[in-house]
Design goal:
Chain lengths: 200, 200
């Protein structure tokens, strides 16, 4: 993998805990109901997710959020209709994994500010949700002209020595690329394709 | 999928037949023996393959060669140690799917020349064969510092109205991207990752 920005070792980063962040919906059906409501109000939903790569023992790993000891997702989330993909992704990353300004000690905030901010780089993958169900595809299937959601995945550059604040109900894992490869059964097809995306 | 070159409909292209091209090795063990011999003579083998995309009924399809009604492969092949990836890929494409200059009628050669040549664009994926066996990975696994083969996959731009000459023992298929998606069981992990690679 070659990037036009540096990839740093995992041990350069510090992780602290922040307050729990509950999922906005309690069930899949609640989630789909909200998607339908949003679609009727403001059209296709837009999401942005971050592909953040670090090295560990010299091998590339991807940072992945695990919610409630259950499912895995890339950091990021839904955008407000007024947000651009790039700005919205930075906002979601700060909400999800940023050091909370109201509760963190000043020295930590200062150190984190010194480290610098994440930078959104190339869009490396785009996924469509053609229907009001849970399936996304890396293309818009034939005969589907009105996707319900579009999700863009961006490479995100991590400045050296950044501090992550991980919500208490989540875990942040660094998963080696070989663990994701050809492993849609465990991680789903989006994650299983990350090695291909990173291979160029 | 967005490319910085035009993607043309399948029906713009004409396919004729050319002489059979037998595989260089008759069995997997023969193939691995040859790889070992080449490795001892000239080090890591290099291969280049072409990701050629056309539209059909408005949907992206990938051109895939099927050998002897059996396995599928992308057009391309091994490079000589002196060939660059880009020039070698053009040579392999002309040997495999080009109109043969010695046997084709002049009007066909003229029409094909007028259409223009394939153009090698971005390298979109890199695969490593770490051992003397049949497995390739889109990364070099940890503890493997001397891969036996590296394979680069390039987007290849197809000029409108190009003529393909397909060897009599092969078929050239245009496979829709949705057929490859999440289908490593049928097409293998390289093909199953093509939708991810094309999704950006």
């Amino acid at each position: 993998m070659r990037t036009d920005f540096p990839i740093c070792p995992l041990q350069d980063y510090m992780m602290i805990e922040r307050e729990s962040q509950q999922e906005e919906d309690n069930s899949v059906s609640d989630r789909l109901e909200r998607l339908k409501l949003q679609y009727s109000e403001s059209g296709m939903r837009r999401s942005a997710e971050a592909l953040i790569v670090v090295t560990h023992r010299g091998f590339p790993h991807v940072l992945v959020v695990q919610v409630a000891n259950a499912f895995y997702k890339l950091p990021g989330g839904y955008l407000d209709p007024s947000e651009s993909f790039e700005d919205g992704l930075i906002t979601r990353l700060n909400e999800q994994l940023g050091v909370p300004e109201s509760t963190a000690p000043n020295w930590l905030l200062a150190r984190n500010k010194e480290a610098g901010d994440w930078k959104v780089r190339e869009c490396v993958s785009m996924w469509y949700r053609p229907n009001f169900d849970t399936f996304f595809y890396p293309y818009l299937p034939p005969q589907h002209t009105h996707p319900k959601e579009i999700k863009k995945v961006f490479m995100v550059e991590l400045p050296p020595k950044k501090i992550f604040a991980v919500p208490a109900n989540m875990k942040l894992h660094a998963i080696p690329v070989y663990e994701l490869y050809d492993n849609a059964a465990r991680y789903g097809p989006l994650f299983a394709g990350i090695p291909h995306i990173l291979s160029k």
